[in-house]
Amino acid sequence: MIKVSGLTKRYGEHRALNQVSFHIKKGEVVGLLGPNGAGKSTLLNILTGYIFANEGQVLVDGMDMMQSLIAVKRKIGFLPEKPPLYKDMTVKEYLLFVAELNGIAKKDRHQAMEKAAHHTGITHVIKRRIKNLSKGYCQRVGLSQALIGDKEILLLDEPTVGLDPKQIMDMRQLIQELSTTRTIIISSHILSEISVLCDSILLLNKGHMIAHEKVENMIKNALNIHQLILRLGLAGCDQETIIANIKCMEGVLDTYLVGTYESNTWDYSISVNKGYDIRTQLVALCHEKNYPLLMLQPTVLTLEEMFMKLTEEGGA
Ligand SMILES: Nc1ncnc2c1ncn2[C@@H]1O[C@H](COP(=O)(O)OP(=O)(O)OP(=O)(O)O)[C@@H](O)[C@H]1O
Asked: Which of 134, 183, 226, 251 is the most buried (most CB within 10 A)?
């Protein structure tokens, strides 16, 4: 449904996107993740046709975005982080206006407005002024404007930001309902939200795409890495040598200094491939090198830690 190849966007010398390629199938719900400045908004803005890339190609349903911009735009609905609402209008006036902007014939606008309002459950407030609605309802109005014109693809930028817990649950349920018949990309910082709503995760970091994985694989990968926290007393320990000694053990993926959680101690995080239990070796190493071993605690990598691992320096 959406095929992106070699997309690069430069702002002056800075590359906000660097050779990004991915393929999203019809009906897929994709979570767009990445730390601040990763390029998420830039990517969404290119996919909505709001800005253009310097290099690369976007195909939507087989149509080249550059060559068939209007036809592509007709397929894509966009809910920006701050929906473009005219607060003095009633919901009905606003949605009719959006229908007009979408090029819908006058005789069909009313029906398009009603359909979108029905989808998002705001039919009972269409006569109210937008400025008098709660944030949750404003977000629903924003979603309705994205749906007007039976859009096949929805791009949702941080759709639950600023909502209270009840509104968040309602919004998620709404997105789940819409996802049964649409292709959706959701940009979010909330990993639990992405793992509930999405089929796959597209992870960006500093303009590079570093993963496009099914959510279940991402979780499985996280579970496949075991993590140990090793606490050593300071006496006679050279941190770099300790890290080097641990890193050369079989099965160890990474080791780094976490910090101090108890006076005169250092905690080290050790990631180990599933199937390896290096605890006995670690105890032997500490004994041999006289490292004061104070704690050795296994933990499981959460999706958040997996995300941190992939987006940290050199994580790709
Ligand atoms: N109009 C612009 N002019 C110059 N640089 C820009 C412009 N827009 C974005 N950038 C830069 O491009 C990079 C990617 O920005 P973008 O807003 O796409 O990231 P993001 O992943 O959406 O971040 P956030 O989560 O903070 O919204 C950042 O370094 C940003 O400073």
From this structure: 183
**Region 287-310 average pLDDT:** 81
- Is residue 272 in contact with ligand 1, taking CB distance under 6 Å? no
Nearest Cα residue to atom 31 of ligand 1: 37
- pTM beyond cutoff 0.80: no
pLDDT band at 164 (very low <50, low <70, confident <90, very high): confident
CA 37 to ligand 1 centroid distance, Å? 5
Looking from the CA of residue 204, the nearest atom of ligand 1 is: 21
Q: Residue 77 has which token pair?
A: 């609905």
Q: For residue 87, is pLDDT > 50?
A: yes
Q: Is the CB of 9 under 6 A from ligand 1?
A: no
How far apart, in whole angstroms, are the C-alpha atoms of residue 271 and residue 247? 10
pLDDT for res 279: 92
| Structural contact between residues 260 and 309, judged by C-beta atoms closer than 8 angstroms | no
ipTM: 0.96
Q: Is the minimum distance from the CB of 50 to ligand 1 under 6 angstroms?
A: no
| Beta carbons of 304 and 274 less than 8 angstroms apart | no
Return the best residue to mutate from 8, 13, 15, 42 for the ligand 1 pocket (most ligand atoms within 8 A of CB).
Answer: 42
Residue with the smallest CA separation from ligand 1 atom 2 is 11
